[in-house]
Structure formats: structure tokens, C-alpha cells
Amino acid sequence: MQRTIESLERIIALGENLLTTFDIEGLLTQIVKHVKDLLEADGATLYLVDPIEKLMISQVILSDRVEEIVLKVGNDSIAGYTALNRRSLNIPDAYGDLSGYHPSLKFNREIDEKFHTHTKSILTHPLVLRDELIGVFQVVNKKGGIPFDDEDLRILRNFAVIAGIAILNARLVERVVEEQTNANDIIEHISEKVIIQNLEGEILSLNHRAAEDLPPGISAREAKGRKVVDLFPSLAGLSGEIRKVIDHNLDKTFSGGKMPYVILTAKNSRQMIEKIILIIKEPANHHLPGPPPATADDPA
């Protein structure tokens, strides 16, 4: 019990770092390293589950020789059984008879033969969060040649909760960054002027087309932090509409008048507006040549 309490203190300390690590590859490596250290094992592997292909792919293997392993989710492998049944396994002898767990279950000795290792004891645990199967921990060979015990399983189960949250957080951040990158790429290349401002009306960013209309001598970088109305006086008439959007916490508003525009909002997790996105579409005749200037010979 004392070891469990000490491990909980370590897990809490480790969790602070894991929950603020958003580089998914670095995070997974840290997670498996901590599992190996917490359980005092010779090796550890984290399999992530592909729910569409029904496959488990080893993301991180902390072992001197073993490389990537791909398994099916099924009862014919130890990690696959753990994933399919969402059940932990504590196997003291990997080469022993495993039919008591399932008639098809057996240890794949080819991995030991291929990488010149010898697996003795195995402890597995499914990584499940909010009823979603994320992956499977597989820890092998407790140091000292002794089998894993119930305390080891409790430690692994406790750590899996923090690890699952950290992985989902990192995946979410990765998805947001990817979506933001795609959105920025679209904004940069559309023909309309796009200006992103904060709630105080200060420019956060603007696309290439909007930068073309900045006052002479001011670059897009220098425009950041300046008031939109100071650098784009023609947009001063939109201040009232922007204020209405903010005051009523709207998602968007638009107009198709003489200066067509769309005002979009970016909201935080509490659904409160953080940014205003102005999209200004120039009138269809904006770039058309006007009538030639009058000359002295033209009739009045």
C-alpha cells in the first residue's frame, strides 16, 4: 500500500508535465518511459488502436531491440485480447498455457526469436477514457525476475487515467493547429480583404489583399496592434455593426450593400467572442476603368 501511495504522488507530479505537453510524439515517449520506470520493468510498449482498421500499432517501444509491431484487435494476442475485451492481464509466464483466458490466446514467440529477447512476465491494461478505447499498455519483465502483482496493476491503472487525458488533449491541440493552418492558408489566398481584430478593434492579422491597402510605408507586421479604423478609415462605418455583434455575442452578420462585407466571430470554449474576422468584398465594378477625364473640348 505504501508503494501505491508513493506512486500516486509521483503520478500527480508527472501529470502536471504530461497535461501541458502537446507534441504528440514527445508525449507518447514520455508516457511509456514513465510506465517503465513506475513499474520497474525491462520493457514497455504503448499500442494505439485504429478503430476503423481494427489494428493496434506500437507507437513507442522502450526495449533495446524490438521495433514496430502491428497487431489485430482480437483474442489471438495478449495486447489484442486486452483491447477487444477491455480487460487487464497479468501473466507470470508468457510461454505458459494461456487458454484459461481464451482458447485462442497465446504469446507470439516470433517476436522474441526475431529480436533475440526472452519475455517472461507481462502486464497489460486498456487505455480507455469516456468509454473510448485509445490503446493498450503492455509492460514486460519485472526487474529481479519476479512477476507483476496487484499493486503494479493499480499503479498502471492510475497512471492510465492521466495518460489518456494527456493523449486526448494533445490530439485536440494537434487538430486545432491543423485546422488553423488550413484556415490561414485559405484566408491568405482568397481575393477578398480579410482583417482579424480583437475586441478593442486592434489588428491581429490580415491577409495579402488587405495589406495592399495599408497606408504607404506601413507593412503587415507593423500594422499588428494598430486600430483598424486608423489604418483603414473607409471601414469606420462598420464599427457600429461590429459593436452589435460583440454586444449580442453573435456568430456572424453580413451585408450586400455598396461595400459588401461579412463579419464572423471566433469564440472560446465558453462560447464568448475572442476575435472578429472582417471579410470585405469589393464591389464588382471596383477594378473597372472609369470614364476618361473631361477635356476642354468636351461639351459642358
Give a written overview of the molecule.
With 300 residues, this protein is α+β, with helices and mostly antiparallel strands. Helices cover 36% and strands 24% of the residues. 27% of the residues are buried. It has 2 domains: 2-173, GAF domain (Beta-Lactamase); 191-280, Beta-Lactamase (2-Layer Sandwich). Strands 3-2-1-6-5-4 form a 6-stranded antiparallel β-sheet, sandwiched between helices. A 5-stranded antiparallel β-sheet has the order 8-7-11-10-9. Helix 1 (2-18) runs parallel beside helix 5. The protein has helices spanning 2-18, 24-38, 78-85, 109-115, 150-189, 208-211, 220-223, 228-231, 239-247; strands at 41-50, 55-62, 70-72, 89-91, 122-129, 132-142, 193-197, 203-206, 252-255, 261-267, 273-280. The termini are far apart.
Task: Please sum up the structure shown.
Helix content is 36%, strand content 24%. It has 300 residues and is α+β, with helices and mostly antiparallel strands. A 6-stranded antiparallel sheet has the order 3-2-1-6-5-4, with helices on both faces. It has a 5-stranded antiparallel sheet with strand order 8-7-11-10-9.
Provide the descriptors you would attach to this structure in a database record:
6-stranded antiparallel sheet; Beta-Lactamase; GAF; elongated; Adenylate cyclase; 9 helices; alpha+beta; 300 residues; 5-stranded antiparallel sheet; 2 domains
CATH class of the largest domain: Alpha Beta
Q: Write down the secondary-structure element order.
A: HHEEEHEHEEHEEHHHHEEE
Mean pLDDT: 86
Query: Number of helical runs?
Result: 9
Protein name: Adenylate cyclase
Organism: Candidatus Ozemobacter sibiricus
Pfam families: GAF
Domain GAF: 23-177
